[in-house]
């Protein structure tokens, strides 16, 4: 069956384009700046449109964010020097999220937006990606697992490590500010 390009474009616009802000937000966090994020987001949208015929329903936001993530990682490999892996394979032992009250959580909640953005930007890309998808885009662990193409345990581990790194960085910054 031949699909009319006008119908395909209209359906794409209605289904995918409402999630363009989330796509750009993820790309900006992964690439580190707005200009590169615009390029990545545009490339991801072109890819999404090209392969829209393969979209079989489900969550269009997660589908688009998967494409943005993959496009961002490709762009980073081509345009940025290789950085060491952020995760030790032995981290599989950390796959269970601790649900006990965390004293550092108050620190994260009370941190200034500027300090928090700076701390997130300093995270290794795997952790930054997990935090952005969970805390800024509101994806579930299952959705993040699908977007990042990793097991849910890895998502949980990355989130736990990212939160821990953020807490340590914000605490260190607070201590420096309190004792100049």
Would you give an account of this structure?
The chain is an all-alpha fold and 180 residues long. It folds into two domains: 5-79, RNA polymerase sigma factor, region 2, helix turn helix motif (Rna Polymerase Sigma Factor, Chain: A, Orthogonal Bundle), CATH 1.10.1740.10; 89-178, Winged helix-like DNA-binding domain superfamily/Winged helix DNA-binding domain (Arc Repressor Mutant, subunit A, Orthogonal Bundle), CATH 1.10.10. The protein has helices at residues 5-15, 20-31, 34-50, 60-79, 103-110, 113-122, 125-136, 141-148, 152-178. Helix 2 (20-31) runs parallel beside helix 4 (60-79) and helix 8 crosses helix 9 (152-178). The radius of gyration is 18 Å and the shape is elongated. It starts with a helix and ends with a helix. Residues 84-98 have low confidence and may be disordered.
Condensed summary:
The chain is mainly alpha-helical and 180 residues long. The chain is built from 9 helices and no strands. The longest helix is centred in the C-terminal third of the chain and has 27 residues, at 152-178.
